[in-house]
Amino acid sequence: DSGVTQTPKHLITATGQRVTLRCSPRSGDLSVYWYQQSLDQGLQFLIQYYNGEERAKGNILERFSAQQFPDLHSELNLSSLELGDSALYFCASSVFFADTQYFGPGTRLTVL
Amino acid sequence: KNEVEQSPQNLTAQEGEFITINCSYSVGISALHWLQQHPGGGIVSLFMLSSGKKKHGRLIATINIQEKHSSLHITASHPRDSAVYICAVFSDKLIFGTGTRLQVFP
User: Fold this and answer.
1) pLDDT tens-digit series, residues A57-89
2) Residue A74 CA, distance from chain mean position
3) Which residue, B69, B62, B59, is CA-closest to B36?
4) Predicted pLDDT of residue B60
């Protein structure tokens, strides 16, 4: 158990819908990262927050947004969902940037 | 060309064999991460390196910053080592290799 929790574990929804994925980092970790893993793309970095502020941005679509709250949990919002958004979404946390990351179990999103 | 290349893509081994997985990158980095992804999907961080060598149990990771290359070695491999091993580099963002799928047979 990494200490990072993600909810929900599974999510099935329809095209055009909006969903929110939630991540609670390990106690004491200030950095939260979001990753997408699809079958054809491998792991892709989406976005990183550090102590509530956006720190780095990767291949995150404009339809996706994220935030980190004062209690350090983070949410990833995916809107206007498309079939291609079906993937595993991982959250990870670390104390600082470029530090060992601890991964959550992932949320499997299926868009029908 | 990918900024992070791993080789081989697939690897099969007999239990007890010594295994090497390679990672080459073309960008400037502050650190490199080796990850293990189990068949069930869970991801575990194995090592984070910025120089030299690290060892944890049967796993050894090395990095040569000048040559932009890292290796992950598994000594006395075991079927439970079967997983996908992923190299990721910290540049201005985290960039992942495509992974090496390892299967170790008894």
Assistant:
1) 988 999 999 999 999 999 999 999 999 999 999
2) 8
3) B59
4) 97
Instruction: Check CB contact under 8 Å for A98 and B96.
Output: no
Per the listing, tokens 């081989």 go with B8
What CA–CA distance (Å, rounded) separates A74 from A24? 6
B101 touches chain A (CB under 8 A): no
The number of C-alpha atoms within 13 Å of B12 and in the hemisphere containing its C-beta is 2
Instruction: Check if the beta carbon of residue B95 is closer than 8 Å to that of residue B6.
Output: no
Residues A52-58, mean pLDDT to the nearest whole number: 91
> Which residue in A48, A92, A100 is closest to B48 by CB distance?
A100
Could you read off the pLDDT of B76-101 as tens digits, one per residue? Answer: 999 999 999 999 998 878 899 999 99
DSSP-assigned beta bridge partners for residue B30? none
Cα separation, A35 vs B34, whole angstroms: 16
- B41·A97 Cβ contact <8 A: no
Strands A87-94 and A107-111: antiparallel
Going by C-alpha positions, the residue among B88, B87, B92, B71 that lies closest to residue B28 is: B92
Amino acid identity, position A4:
V
d(CA B22, CA A57): 27
Contact partners, residue A97, CB within 8 Å, separation at least 6: A31, A48, A50, A55, A56, B90
